[in-house]
Amino acid sequence: MGSTVIGSTSEKRPIKIFLPRPRGFCAGVVRAVDIVEKALKLYGSPVYVRHEIVHNRHVVESLRKIGAIFVEEVEEIPVGAVTVFSAHGISRRVQEDAKLRNLHTIDATCPLVIKVHNEARRYARMGHEIVLIGHEGHPEVEGTLGQVKGKITLISTVEEVKTLQPTDHGRIAYVTQTTLSVDDTREIVAALKKRFPEITGPRAEDICYATQNRQHAVKKLMDICELVLVIGAQNSSNSNRLREICETGGVQSYLIPDASAIKLEWFQGVDSVGITAGASAPEILVEGLVSRLNTLFDTTVEDLDVVEENVFFRLPRELRLPGEPQIPKIR
């Protein structure tokens, strides 16, 4: 842990800023962004991307500037075009529609989401009815729901466990969205196991390592900060969970897209501020927020090392350019 004085002016009120590690981009996001960039290098512009590659406007706009075109449905993509599927995963229907349009597809689905798809399909082949713990309408959830042939029920609360009516209590399994609250999901799984003692689930939690690590880090901020700012998009599930964890713990917290969204009244009477970022928010946004606070206050910044991350995901084989490392770079 190190400490660095960013600015010092007697007219400014002192505030201490804590920056936890890990924060920001996870390996799945790094891989997804690299896939779009390398597809553009290989095939030229345009490269079409179904859905936002990750839930962050700044990332999407930076890719749009170099030739990516973002669409919501494959029907919007010209026949035969190069197409990237977002990190959130897709349904079988989307895969079939892409084949009908003869699209050259590159799948940027996070490997941890693919793991959930594989688990769900395996349970279905075993004849189990499946419970998916997740948030309705989230692209990852829609993709997982669309990967299963058989009965699959979506729930998001402990109360909904009481409403489940499986055909056979002995042939039921569960999987989860990867970006949920660790604590909330643990409660739902416990309720499922209590009601259905024979329920089957994955050996390890489906919630991804990055989501768990960032939630663990934000809990450390809660112990030492009066205010926590989470950088991330409003439609980012993992970013929303970070803010909710702080609120539940009684710490004032706001989810903001970038430094332009802060309000001075948030800092009244506040001497310590924690800044973190969701898994799809680039580090440049954290730097921008720290710089903005430095213009307003006499800031001291301290790094808070909570968990070491060294996870990397390989790029699809067709995008590994000659002479380039096979592991994507960290941003």
Task: Describe the protein's topology.
Blueprint: E1 3-5, E2 14-21, H1 27-43, E3 47-50, H2 57-65, E4 68-71, E5 82-85, H3 92-100, E6 104-107, H4 111-125, E7 129-133, H5 139-145, E8 152-155, H6 158-161, E9 172-176, H7 182-195, H8 209-224, E10 227-231, H9 237-248, E11 252-256, E12 272-277, H10 283-296, E13 298-305
Parallel strand pairs: 2-12, 2-13, 3-4, 3-5, 5-6, 7-8, 7-9, 10-11, 10-12
Antiparallel strand pairs: 1-13
Helix pairs in contact: 8-9
In total, the number of strands is 13
- The average pLDDT is 92
Work out the oligomeric state of the chains in this entry.
single chain
Radius of gyration: 21 Å
CA(first)-CA(last) distance: 21 Å
Count of helix runs: 10
Structural class: alpha/beta
What is the H-and-E element order? EEHEHEEHEHEHEHEHHEHEEHE
Low-confidence segments, given as residue ranges, are 1-9, 327-331
- Major sheet description: 6 strands, mixed
Please state the overall shape, judged from the principal axes of the Cα atoms: flat
Physical arrangement of strands within the biggest beta sheet: 1-13-2-12-10-11
Helix fraction? 25-40%
Instruction: Indicate the proportion of strand residues.
Output: 15-25%
